[in-house]
Amino acid sequence: MTDTPIVVGEPTGSRDNEVRPFQLEGVDVRGRAVRLGTVADQILKAHDYPESVARILGELLVLTGMLGSIMKFNGIVTIQTKSGGPIPMMVADFERREDGIGRLRGYADIDQKKLSVFGENPSFEGLIGSKSGYMALTIDQGAEMERYQGIVELKGETLSDVARSYFVNSEQTPTEIRLSCDKDTVTGHWRAGGIMVQHLARGETGQERILDRETKEEWNRASILMSSVKNDELIDPQLDLDQLLFRLYHEDGVRVFDSEQMVHKCRCSRERLLEAIQSFSDDDIDHATVDDSIDVNCQFCNTTYQFTPAEVRAK
């Protein structure tokens, strides 16, 4: 990374915390570019994660925002990994409401004993334990709509590899994707970014759906150009997403569409947690009470809420 200070306070003109959809002109290729500044920094700093863990969680936040923004409706997209490695579970979700703003949150569960076996820079496969794990994507559109879930094995050297396998196996859509997350060496603030291109479906049922002779060369060119992007470019505060897309695809032509803003917003609240623990039995309430207080911690935002037994029993 460069030593360029990171833009943290979203000053006027900042292009952080957004998803930018785009389409390559004249070919059947679409894509999305993501940049997270304060959103990634707030989520990752809510817990004292080792940097190797924070980098992977930051990439998961980018992937979740990227896929969640594809939704054309209000709802929640959740991506979760489970494995037998030092990170037994990692989860991020994206919620869209009527205002059209994407709300991101996420956290990682860490097995400190297993993590202590690895050095300072453990591999993705080492942290995730990919031989025994999976990644699940869940789309929840509310009570009136059926939930969708897709699952793919945690195979690959990076989270980008896993995401690519998901699209090929679950969506049958040729996809190239790059994810990046790192901490600025000067300011200490986290940034994350990513880019994805996909080949659109062509042909009717029973015919060759995609990558026919006419379009294979176009797709190869689009994916190779995308693969040329550097990790630093994905998170560089001096290079906004439009500039990045122009650098990659100006010779072919790239059309950008309205971006979607994202914020860090947890869905926990004192009222919701109180309602939940009021369903506990008296024995459970007694067991949870320490020094006349029931403390409940939100794993996502690491906020602790305190309740008295009398408050809980006052239904």
Describe the 3D structure.
The protein has 315 residues and is an alpha+beta fold. The protein folds into 2 domains: 18-264, Hsp33 domain; 270-313, HSP33 redox switch-like (CBS domain Like). Helix content is 30%, strand content 28%. The chain is built from 11 helices and 13 strands. The chain has helices at 38-45, 51-68, 112-115, 124-128, 159-171, 216-227, 231-235, 241-249, 270-277, 282-288, 309-313, and strands at residues 18-24, 29-36, 75-82, 89-96, 102-109, 134-140, 148-153, 175-183, 190-199, 254-256, 260-264, 294-297, 304-307. The strands form 2 sheets. Strands 1, 2, 3, 4, 5, 6, 7, 8, 9, 10 and 11 form an 11-stranded mixed β-sheet that branches. A two-stranded antiparallel sheet has the order 12-13. β4 and β5 form a beta hairpin. The protein is globular and about 70 Å long.
